[in-house]
Amino acid sequence: MLFLNAINGIPVLGLFFQFVEYLFTSLPFTAHVALQLAVPICLAALCGVMCERSGVVNIGLEGIMLTSAFTGWFGAEVFTGMFGAGTPTPIFGLTLPLVLGLVAAVAAGMLMSLLHAWLSISVRADQIISGAIINILAFGTTGYLNTLLAATSLPSVGNFAALNIPSSVQDVPLVGWLVNALFGQGPIGVVTILIVIAFQVLLFRSRWGLRTRAVGEHPRAAETVGIDVIRLRYRNVVLSGAIAALGGAYLSMEATNAFQAGMTQGRGFIGLAAMIVGRWTPLGAFGAAILFASAQAISQSIAVSPPSGQLGDLLSHVPSQFFDALPYMITIVVLAGLIGRSVAPAADGRPYERESAH
Asked: In CATH, what number does 13-155+174-201+231-338 get?
């Protein structure tokens, strides 16, 4: 009601142009925040792309990320107790406990993906149910362990630091803000950009990519030309777990230095949506992840530096919960518009069984 009263009598077109002007002036900050928020979503989406391009549906991204977030944080705490905090490096603030914790997070993600691969490929269980099992197992286990650890005293550990882009670079017209947004992040954020580029090239310009796409589209035909469908699917699903694990580790080791139960907050499912919106391509998934993260970035920009004038007065009457829910609403709207238009790989979600020799 307050919002309706606030907008009454204010020209809507004028508000629109004020909002566009505000977005333009706040672009450097908003872009930087959007890239940071997009990192875990993008990594989850890339995991989904690798799985589904191989013919395996993976809705267990949320569980893989959550397991890795807990394992990375707890591993860093344990290694800090064993080796001490250490001296952070000038770039990225790397320490031995943090690096070992990240390795533990990746190993945990690959282990969870191996479980999903075994259920989906060898057991030939329903892949949706298998992914749901991964999620339930991760939520229950990490929540229980986090409750147990809350009563214990663990050594304090830092987190990965963002790369400091010199102000002389940031002030370069037109491109300075973009360089800061892309590379003014911690090691996982920077590695994400590199993974997107490498994955896009490898998927469409390498022998591995050709085989992966063949297995996801026509596994029987791929088998006849000598491609081991089962082995390739196993390899890709487990490798994709390492990518999703980086997304989980980002939440507990780079964005923060702590673990909270359920801290993924649906990012794995938004990653699946980004995969679909991006039409099962790495670059497309990256762009979709930025789209979904931009809504939350704009809300943070408004909270930090609200616009002035009538637009500021109007936005002050908008409940903060609206901005919190905006990324999820955008996800639903975009997906609804793509129903029937985005076509998944032909063999996606179909268990493969080798023909018996006669």
From this structure: 1.10.3470
